């Protein structure tokens, strides 16, 4: 609160009265209290940024051979990430050193994205139809999510195996996973160590 403090007095010399001087003192305590109240308000009402995480499917070593996941040649696709930052090597089906045909592409929309969209076009079409029904209110959120997960996990959906060697760039691995999950609607993918035979195939390919 503002306080008025009077200071100084009139003299008695020769009958003259001197004007009284007033000194003003402002009490800042209420202002400090208001500052703390505002600080507390903003702390309690502000939304802090949440850490973003990425879901990565890592293969688990089975306890027995009966529970191993079977991969069909028609749905399997393997991406090989090496020291060449602008190239991705890939092949379809199970790896066979004598018969596997190694191909190459880049990370552009006309390279990796185009190949993934073509490979998973059936699932992408199903997801698109589900999104249209969901946007029109024909199916609820829970049903849409359940059907979308089922479509991505169908046995006929593409299964992508990402294999990177010790010289591959971390950025390239993240870019590939983003393309798989965010663009190509691939629900089945895993990170696996590249085998020596695959390294040798990349080396002798000369691409």
Task: Walk me through what this model shows.
This protein has 207 residues and is α/β, with parallel strands linked by helices. The chain has 2 domains: 2-45, no CATH class; 65-120 and 158-205, Nucleotidyltransferase, domain 5, CATH 3.30.420. Helix content is 37%, strand content 18%. The protein contains 6 helices and 7 strands, in the order ββαβββαααβαβα. The strands form 2 sheets. Strands 5-4-3-6-7 form a 5-stranded mixed β-sheet, with helices on one face. Strands 1-2 form a two-stranded antiparallel sheet. Helix 2 runs parallel beside helix 5 (170-183) and helix 3 runs antiparallel to helix 4 (141-152). The longest helix is centred in the N-terminal third of the chain and has 17 residues, at 29-45. It is elongated.
Summed up:
With 207 residues, the protein is an alpha/beta fold. It folds into two domains: 2-45, no CATH class; 65-120 and 158-205, Nucleotidyltransferase, domain 5 (2-Layer Sandwich). The chain is built from six helices and seven strands, in the order ββαβββαααβαβα.
């Amino acid at each position: 609160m503002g306080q008025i403090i009077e200071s100084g007095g009139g003299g008695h010399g020769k009958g003259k009265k001197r004007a009284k001087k007033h000194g003003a003192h402002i009490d800042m305590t209420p202002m400090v209290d208001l500052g703390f109240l505002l600080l507390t308000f903003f702390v309690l009402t502000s939304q802090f940024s949440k850490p973003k995480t990425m879901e990565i499917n890592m293969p688990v070593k089975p306890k027995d051979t009966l529970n191993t996941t079977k991969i069909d040649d028609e749905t399997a696709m393997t991406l090989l990430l090496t020291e060449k930052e602008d190239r991705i090597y890939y092949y379809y089906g199970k790896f066979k050193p004598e018969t596997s045909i190694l191909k190459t592409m880049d990370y552009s929309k006309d390279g990796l994205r185009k190949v993934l969209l073509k490979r998973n076009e059936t699932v992408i079409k199903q997801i698109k139809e589900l999104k249209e029904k969901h946007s029109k209110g024909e199916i609820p959120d829970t049903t849409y999510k359940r059907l979308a997960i089922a479509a991505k996990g169908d046995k006929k959906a593409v299964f992508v195996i990402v294999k990177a060697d010790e010289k591959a760039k971390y950025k390239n691995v993240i870019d590939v996973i983003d393309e798989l999950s965010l663009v190509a609607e691939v629900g089945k993918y895993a990170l696996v160590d590249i085998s020596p035979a695959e390294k040798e195939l990349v080396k002798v390919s000369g691409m």
